[in-house]
Structure formats: structure tokens, C-alpha cells
């Protein structure tokens, strides 16, 4: 029989099953599932892929766009062909329905993962169809690996061994099964029209095709999609495919994947009422638009002092890139959850200002469930939050029903349910995420191909690039290499980026775009400051901001400021008895903050560690606070507060210290680096522990940030002054406390102190002096290091540490695309997302503080009003509440946990709860610490988590 006969009703055996529902005892034919996925892949190609992605795939296959679309549908449809194997036996009910002819021909078949069975069986069918399949990089082998990767990991094809035709046929059943696989293959090829054989399969194209297949498979595997089809009257394969093609657009639309184009709106409307673009933004709107129109996508580096409008500049650059038609959407990456939450508000407002009919904006970080702007009234309670690990969809139980009023209205920027699924939120057209979420795309974790597909269809804005340590910076270089290969435009933003680092990142992007490092070594890729540099992916040509525009922008934002270094004695330092008394750290902080407490104003005290922040906060509470005491006027914000408390405090501070709105008469915020980056806030007084110079410059940008704000009358001086507390020994030498040495390389704060001490006592001119300051400490610091023997030794250790971090980063990175001979090279290591470190040494555990009542019952509050579900699986609403009460701790702190610290057994099957560690406090005496080996922990209502060590 031929494919035309097989396509008719009764023309081919449909008894092998692909989906089975135990609740409804419904069995869905495997062939129909393959056809569903093929049909959906075609619509994902049409509605989700951008023009640039479609062109890249077609060029990578050596086919026309129409031929490439058909081939992608064909490949996606083949993904589960390996289920025509011993897989059929794993469920007794559907196996009993398989035809007697097939059941009698199993021979000595062997169980293997069906994705591997698909890869092995299709390899020889492709060879029969004319696909070269003799080497690891031949089209047939790469297509087979795409099928093997549809569950997230690319597999090795042993062409002369396990994948040899004779061995495959022995393992996957007798000749009847072989013949049925061949007929399914031929029927899929016929119905999808994939008659063209690709001349090649490039690695970037293969990665994108894999991602398309994963999306189509996920859509077709939704129970509400296939179950009604399984219960419908029987159809032939041809009729079923025709109906699947008709149904597919609605499925993709319902998922929220369909791309939209934001309508053109005036600059003022798009950017929250800004009257006009500044000189930097004008230059991008004019110059960059012309260059992109002529040369296509590339990488843009924007440098400017804090508060200069880099975020708006990046959004305008993204608009210009999207106007070309090759990309659509925005991905905005930031270093921390706090900065990501702030950027989410900005991007959502930007998208909503265009009044689209529907344009989902997703927030993707490991604790997006804490962000009340993203959850609660905007997200249905029964929908899951985002996680790195795949978690299957499930039905909504009775306990998961929406409470009345929980979602009072739909918003055009709210992601649809499917996009809020476990590892799919990055697929939303407009996304704000932490750097980590994107860097996972270049680690050998499951579904990294899906991540890469999600990243590369829109401009990628990488904010606060200077905040990345060498470990993460090396990962970013590899990610930029892959984005360059994908033709994805990138915008790098920084206020304090050394020139050699920006050059490295630009060259990594150009290397991926086809311009190897030797060919770009002569290029000066350092951007002007302030200003921008653009490198085109097509020819590696460089374009810089017009000098007149750069000078005009600097003139508009030029201001003077002081950084004043104060030597102090840290509490960890004990002076010899015979030495004169020195000013302590807390005494200096008191001297600076007491006028604020007494007479009003807004201040920030940046502490190096959370323990320092807790001590400082406790001390400042003893000051003379009018108007009812310190409560509400003195706030403590750090990372070891329960998530819901930390998020509420961050939002409160951002609102209180913003440009618009009612400014409090008195507010002092004691914080850590949590408040460092990308928060648009302004304070009158700032005190900071010694930190790397680029961090101090970032903080300085939030001191007297807004010109229109009236400063307190008691403030003397006509310019802002950042007070930096330098911990010293009794001889006046910089002495970092032991607890600070875990924060990063000691050389950077030591070099900062040395540089500031040697600098003439004159005000800084911003932005003119910024790059010179950055280069002196964070660029080529050899000259500074030679001024002191101890500093020189520290510099040598710093260089060795940097090389070590970069080496550790390279150990897990996927290879460059041109070094990938086999797709399995992308998954040489079996790395789980939970174990994939995107920050060196940062593998924290999540701690859940709970209270044990007198009867042994566990609750989330000491009063016992919020009991935990201990003996049944928690509902999704309960899961969110539990997660909002967690906080991160170093793994070493809870290494000595016992059975009392284990979660209930009913929680262990949930991806986000399985790794939690309980902190069971006595409800009658919650201040009594809980012991974990030599570590003791307890949650204080004001201070957050308090840690002591034996």
C-alpha cells in the first residue's frame, strides 16, 4: 500500500498508542499525536518564530523558507516514532488494544527511552530517503539527534554500534513493527510535504528546530487538547491531519505564543510622560536606526553614569531592532531579583503604553512568586509559577479553585496560563529575567535548546554588565557568541564597565557571527563614555556616537560630588590596650544619620554584610526618633528576610524614594548590596561600608539623583557627599573584617581605599571622571598595585583568582557552535538545573521558618493561625504562600540538619518544595535559636534571619 492509501480511513494500523489517560480510560493513537505535533510545529513556525529565525533555519538547511517549514513540521512529527517499540507494553490497558498482528511480532525487543528509540529508528529511514547519514555531522545524523533531544538532552549516535540498522531492528521488534515505522515515516513526510532533502543542517538551525519540536509537543500533549480528540469518532490519518492543521492556530493563540507588533506611539507616551529624549537617546534614535537599516542586527554597548537614561535608551534601541522585522519583543536581563522586579514594572508600563490588544510580559527568576505585581490578582491561583525543571501540567482540583475576586480582571500584559508553566515563561514575547536564566542556555542542562530558542527571537538587553564576576562574565561571553550566531541583536548597559571587558564581550559576539577573534583583534571596541558603540554582525563594522551628541549629553548631566573616606574601627577589630581610642564604625554612622533622625531627610546606609546591617539597624533604633519612634522611619532590607516581607519592603522603598509621588519627611534605610543596582531612587544622605569602586560609583548615582527634590535645610554644602567607612587597624592600615573576605576579591576594596586615599581632595566631576576611576581600579591596576607591597601581593592573588573563576566557568559551558561536531557535544555532562551553578560557590538552600505548636502542629506564624498542610499535597495557592515565606541561606549553615528539619513527605514530589529545609521554631519561645550542627538560626520579626556560630 502507498501513502495515499495509508492516509485514508482504515488504511493504516492506528492501534499503537501515544497518549493514555487513566482517569477517562482514553487511548489516543500514536500516529494522531505525531500528526498533531507536525501541524502545531507549522503554526509555531508561522506565529511564534520571527522572520530572522525562519531565515536562519532555512539558510542552515540550505532550503527555501517554504521547504524549511515543511521539513520542520516533518521533523517535529517524527519525535515519538520510537514509541513503536517496547514502550507500548508499559501500560496494560492500551497495550491490550494494540492489534494482534503487532502483539505477535515483538520478538526479543528491549526497553529503551523512547527518544533514543526515535533517534535510532529514524536514522536509517532518513538514509533510505536520501539523507546523508555516514558521519556525526551529516544531515541525517543531526536530524536524528534533534529527535533524540525532544525530551531536553541531545544524545550520542553510535553509527557503527547501537545505532546500526541490524541492532536497532533487533531491539525494536520484528518486521511488522519495522514496516509500520517505515509507513508512519512515509505518511508524515507525504502529509507535511517535506520532500526536499537538506543540503546541510547547521548547529544553530538544529538547536532552533529542536526548540520548535519541544513547544509543539508540549502544546499537543495538553490533556484538554488531545482527550476530546481521543473520544471523537474515528478518522483516517489524512482527515485527522487536515483537522489538526485547522485547529492549530487557535491552540497557539490560546497559549500566548503568537507574536505581535507594538504599534508606533510618541516617545512621551511610550516612556511614562518623559517630555523628550535626551541627547544620548536622540543619537540612538537617529544614528543607530540608519546603521541597523543598512547593516542589520549587531551588538550595542551603552555607557553612562547612573541616572543618565540608559534604560530608556535600551528600549529605544530594541524598538529600532524590531522595526527591521527580523525580531519581535524584548528580553531584559538584570543581576538580582530586586532589580528584576523593578525592571518588570518598567517594561510592563512600556508595553501597556502602546495599547496592544494582548502582549504578555513575563517575570522570570527563581522567586517570581514573591512579586505581588506579577502574582496574586494578576495570576490565577491554580496556575504554576516558573521553575527551571520541567513539571507536567495537571488538572485543577477542587482545592485549587479561584477564590472570589482573586482575578478581578484581565490585563493585556498578563501571560496566558501556558506561558506561566514551569519552564516556558521565557517564551513570552516580553520578558524580564535574571542573568542566570539566560546563562542556563549555555550550560548542559535539560531543555537548553528551548531556552536558546526563547532568547534569540528578540533584542536581548543585558543590564548592569559590570556586576558580573569573572565566572559569570565568561558565561556571558559564550552566550553572546551563540546569540551572534543566531543573528540576535544585543544591548549591553553599564555605568562602570572597564574598556577591556566591553571589548572582550563585543568580540565574543562577533566571533559567533562569523568573525573569529584574529580577524577582530585590531578593532578598538571600547565605547566612549558617556555614549555608545555598535558592532554590526554582518561585517564587524563599528559605529560610535557622534562626539557632539556625547558632549551635549555630558553637559546636561554634569555635576560635582564628593567621596569622602573615613577610617573607622570595625567591631571585629580589637585594638591593643595601649593605643588611643579610635572612632568606631557605629559612631561614625551615628554622626552622619543622627541629623536625619532629628531633623528629617532620607538616608541610606549600605552595609557590607547582613550581620553588619542587623547590628547597624539595632544601634540606630537607639537614636532619638521623633514622631513615635523609629518604626516606619527606620527600615532594614537584606536578602535574609522572608520573601513576601523582602518584596514588600523593596516596593515600599522604591515608591517612597522615587522621582514622583509624596516623599516621606524622614526615612533611613539600612541595607546591603540588595539595593545597589537599577533602582531609580534618591536619598539626601548616604553612608557606605568600603566596597569596590564601581559599586561606590553606582551608589553615588542615587545620592541627590533628582534635581527637583528639595534637600533638608540642615544639609550644608552645595553638592552630594558619599561617606565611605574604611575599616582600619590601629596603625591606620586598611583591614578587611574576616566576614567580608567571602564577598569577593579583597583586592578590589583594598585598591579602592588606596586609590581614594591618594586622590587629591577635590570633587569628582560626573560623568567626566567615571571611566578614569573605573580603569584605575577595575581595568589595568598594575600601576596602582605597584605603590604598595601588600597591595601588589593582593593584586597577584586577584589575578590568579580571576583566572581560576574563568577556568571553573569553562568546565561546564557548552562549546562554541563551530566547535560542536555532534549535537551531543551540547550535553556531554548530565547537569541538572538545580546543580548548574551560574555563580561560583553560590548553591544556597531555601529555608522555611515555621513554628511548632504545643501539639506538634506546624504553622507559618507563631500565633498558629496559618497551619501547614502536612499530611496531604498542598494546593498551588498553598505552595505559593509557602514559597513566599522562604529565604536563602548558605548550604553550609543547614548541612547539620536532622529529621526535625525535613519537609513533610507529601511535599517531596513537588519540584519547588522538595529541597526546602524547615526551621522549626518553638511557638512559645520563637527567639530560641534552632541548632544545625555548629550553626544556630532563628527568625527575628525585625532583623530577619539571625545566624550565630559556635
Could you list some keywords that capture this structure?
24 strands; 8-stranded mixed beta sheet; 950 residues; alpha/beta; single chain; 13% strand
Q: What would you say about this model in short?
A:
With 950 residues, this protein is of the alpha/beta class.
Describe the protein's topology.
Layout (H helix, E strand, L loop, with lengths): L2 H5 L9 E5 L4 E4 H19 L2 H11 L3 H13 L14 H6 L2 H4 L10 H15 L10 H10 L16 H7 L3 H18 L10 H18 L2 H8 L6 H19 L11 H4 L8 H17 L2 E6 L6 H14 L6 E5 L2 H16 L8 E4 L65 E5 H5 L8 H8 L4 E3 L7 H16 L4 E5 L4 H14 L4 H4 L10 E6 L5 E3 L2 H11 L1 E10 L16 H15 L1 E6 L3 H11 L13 E4 L5 H14 L9 E6 L13 E5 L3 H8 L20 E7 L19 H12 L5 E3 L3 H9 L3 H4 L3 H24 L32 E8 L5 E2 L16 H9 L2 E3 L27 E6 L7 E3 L2 E6 L3 E6 L1
Parallel strand pairs: 3-8, 4-6, 4-7, 5-6, 7-8, 11-16, 12-14, 12-15, 13-14, 15-16, 18-21
Antiparallel strand pairs: 1-2, 3-9, 9-10, 11-17, 18-19, 18-20, 22-23, 23-24
Helix pairs in contact: 2-4, 2-11, 2-13, 3-4, 3-11, 4-11, 7-8, 8-11, 11-19, 15-16, 15-23, 20-21, 20-31, 28-31
Amino acid at each position: 500500500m502507498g501513502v495515499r492509501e495509508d492516509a485514508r480511513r482504515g488504511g493504516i494500523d492506528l492501534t499503537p498508542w501515544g497518549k493514555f489517560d487513566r482517569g477517562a480510560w482514553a487511548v489516543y493513537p500514536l500516529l494522531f499525536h505525531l500528526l498533531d505535533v507536525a501541524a502545531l510545529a507549522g503554526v509555531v513556525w508561522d506565529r511564534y518564530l520571527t522572520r530572522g529565525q525562519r531565515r536562519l533555519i532555512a539558510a542552515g538547511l540550505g532550503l527555501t523558507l517554504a521547504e524549511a517549514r515543511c521539513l520542520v513540521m516533518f521533523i517535529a512529527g517524527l519525535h515519538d516514532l520510537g514509541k513503536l517499540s517496547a514502550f507500548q507494553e508499559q501500560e496494560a490497558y492500551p497495550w491490550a488494544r494494540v492489534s494482534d498482528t503487532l502483539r505477535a511480532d515483538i520478538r526479543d525487543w528491549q526497553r529503551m527511552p523512547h527518544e533514543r528509540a526515535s533517534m535510532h529508528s529514524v536514522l536509517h529511514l532518513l538514509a533510505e530517503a536520501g539523507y546523508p547519514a555516514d558521519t556525526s555531522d551529516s544531515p541525517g545524523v543531526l536530524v536524528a539527534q534533534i529527535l533524540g533531544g525532544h525530551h531536553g538532552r541531545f544524545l550520542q549516535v553510535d553509527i557503527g554500534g547501537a545505532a546500526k540498522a541490524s541492532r536497532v531492528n533487533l531491539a525494536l521488534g520484528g518486521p511488522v513493527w519495522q514496516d509500520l515505522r517505515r509507513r508512519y515515516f512515509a505518511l508524515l513526510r507525504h502529509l507535511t510535504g517535506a520532500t526536499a532533502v537538506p543540503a546541510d543542517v547547521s548547529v544553530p538551525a538544529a538547536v532552533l528546530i529542536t526548540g520548535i519540536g519541544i513547544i509543539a509537543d508540549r502544546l499537543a500533549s495538553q490533556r484538554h487538547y488531545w482527550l476530546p480528540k481521543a473520544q471523537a469518532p474515528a478518522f483516517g490519518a489524512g482527515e485527522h491531519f487536515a483537522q489538526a492543521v485547522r485547529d492549530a492556530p487557535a491552540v497557539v493563540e490560546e497559549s500566548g505564543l503568537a507574536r505581535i507588533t507594538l504599534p508606533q506611539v510618541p516617545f512621551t507616551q511610550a516612556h511614562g510622560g518623559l517630555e523628550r529624549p535626551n541627547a544620548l537617546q536622540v543619537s540612538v534614535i537617529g544614528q543607530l536606526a540608519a546603521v541597523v537599516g543598512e547593516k542589520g542586527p549587531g551588538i550595542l554597548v551603552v555607557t553612562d553614569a547612573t541616572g543618565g537614561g540608559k534604560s530608556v535608551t535600551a528600549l529605544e534601541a530594541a524598538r529600532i531592532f524590531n522595526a527591521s522585522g527580523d525580531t519581535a519583543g524584548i528580553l531584559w536581563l538584570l543581576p538580582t531579583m530586586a532589580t528584576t522586579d523593578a525592571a518588570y514594572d518598567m517594561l510592563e508600563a512600556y508595553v501597556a503604553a502602546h495599547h496592544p490588544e494582548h502582549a504578555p510580559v513575563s517575570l522570570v527568576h527563581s522567586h517570581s512568586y514573591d512579586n505581588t505585581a506579577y502574582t496574586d490578582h494578576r495570576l490565577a491561583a491554580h496556575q504554576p509559577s516558573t521553575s527551571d525543571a520541567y513539571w507536567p501540567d495537571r488538572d485543577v482540583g477542587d482545592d485549587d479553585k479561584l477564590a472570589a475576586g482573586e482575578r478581578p480582571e484581565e490585563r493585556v500584559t498578563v501571560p496566558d496560563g501556558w506561558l506561566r508553566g514551569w519552564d516556558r515563561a521565557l517564551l513570552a514575547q516580553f520578558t524580564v529575567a535574571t542573568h542566570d536564566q539566560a546563562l542556563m542556555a549555555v550550560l548542559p542542562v535539560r531543555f537548553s535548546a528551548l531556552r536558546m530558542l526563547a532568547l534569540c527571537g528578540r533584542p536581548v538587553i543585558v543590564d548592569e554588565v559590570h556586576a558580573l564576576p569573572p565566572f559569570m562574565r565568561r558565561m556571558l561571553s559564550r552566550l553572546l557568541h551563540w546569540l551572534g550566531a543566531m543573528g540576535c541583536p544585543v544591548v549591553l548597559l553599564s555605568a562602570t564597565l572597564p574598556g577591556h571587558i566591553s571589548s572582550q564581550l563585543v568580540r565574543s559576539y562577533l566571533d559567533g557571527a562569523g568573525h573569529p577573534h584574529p580577524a577582530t583583534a585590531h578593532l578598538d571596541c571600547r565605547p566612549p563614555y558617556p555614549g555608545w558603540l555598535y558592532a554590526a554582525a554582518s561585517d564587524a563594522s563599528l559605529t560610535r556616537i557622534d562626539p557632539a551628541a556625547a558632549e551635549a549629553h555630558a553637559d546636561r548631566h554634569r555635576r560635582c560630588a564628593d567621596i569622602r573616606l573615613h577610617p573607622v574601627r570595625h567591631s571585629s577589630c580589637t585594638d591593643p590596650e595601649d593605643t588611643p581610642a579610635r572612632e568606631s564604625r557605629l559612631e561614625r554612622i551615628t554622626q552622619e544619620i543622627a541629623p536625619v533622625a532629628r531633623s528629617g531627610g532620607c538616608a541610606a546606609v549600605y552595609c557590607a554584610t547582613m550581620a553588619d546591617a542587623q547590628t547597624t539597624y539595632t544601634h540606630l533604633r537607639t537614636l532619638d526618633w521623633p514622631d513615635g519612634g523609629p518604626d516606619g522611619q527606620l527600615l532594614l532590607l537584606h536578602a535574609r528576610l522572608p520573601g513576601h516581607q523582602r518584596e514588600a519592603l523593596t516596593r515600599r522603598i522604591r515608591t517612597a524614594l522615587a522621582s514622583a509621588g509624596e516623599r516621606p519627611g524622614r526615612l533611613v534605610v539600612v541595607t546591603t548590596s540588595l539595593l545597589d543596582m537599577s533602582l531609580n531612587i534618591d536619598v539626601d544622605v548616604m553612608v557606605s561600608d568600603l566596597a569596590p569602586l564601581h559599586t561606590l560609583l553606582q551608589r553615588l548615582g542615587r545620592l541627590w539623583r533628582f534635581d527637583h527634590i528639595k534637600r533638608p535645610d540642615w544639609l550644608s554644602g552645595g553638592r552630594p557627599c558619599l561617606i565611605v567607612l574604611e575599616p582600619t587597624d590601629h596603625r591606620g592600615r586598611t583591614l578587611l573584617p574576616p566576614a567580608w573576605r567571602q564577598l569577593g576579591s579583597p583586592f578590589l576594596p583594598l585598591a579602592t581605599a588606596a586609590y581614594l586615599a591618594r586622590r587629591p581632595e577635590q570633587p569628582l566631576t560626573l560623568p567626566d571622571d567615571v571611566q578614569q576611576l573605573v580603569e584605575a581600579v577595575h581595568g589595568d591596576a598594575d600601576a596602582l598595585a605597584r605603590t604598595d607591597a601588600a597591595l601588589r601581593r593582593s593584586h597577584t592573588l586577584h589575578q590568579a583568582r580571576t583566572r581560576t573563576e574563568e577556568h571553573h566557568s569553562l568546565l561546564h559551558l557548552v562549546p562554541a557552535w563551530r566547535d560542536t561536531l555532534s549535537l551531543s557535544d551540547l550535553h556531554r555532562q548530565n547537569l541538572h538545573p538545580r546543580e548548574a551553578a551560574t555563580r561560583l560557590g553560590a548553591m544556597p538552600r531555601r529555608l522555611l521558618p515555621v513554628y511548632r505548636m504545643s501539639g506538634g502542629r506546624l504553622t507559618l506564624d507563631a500565633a498558629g493561625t496559618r497551619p501547614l498542610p502536612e499530611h496531604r499535597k498542598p494546593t498551588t495557592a498553598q505552595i505559593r504562600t509557602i514559597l513566599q515565606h522562604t529565604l536563602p541561606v548558605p548550604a553550609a549553615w543547614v548541612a547539620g540538619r536532622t529529621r526535625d528539619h525535613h519537609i513533610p513527605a507529601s511535599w517531596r514530589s513537588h519540584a519547588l518544595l522538595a529541597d526546602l529545609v524547615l526551621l522549626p521554631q518553638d511557638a512559645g519561645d520563637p527567639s530560641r535559636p534552632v541548632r544545625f550542627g555548629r550553626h544556630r538560626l532563628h527568625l527575628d520579626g525585625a532583623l530577619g534571619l539571625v545566624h550565630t556560630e559556635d
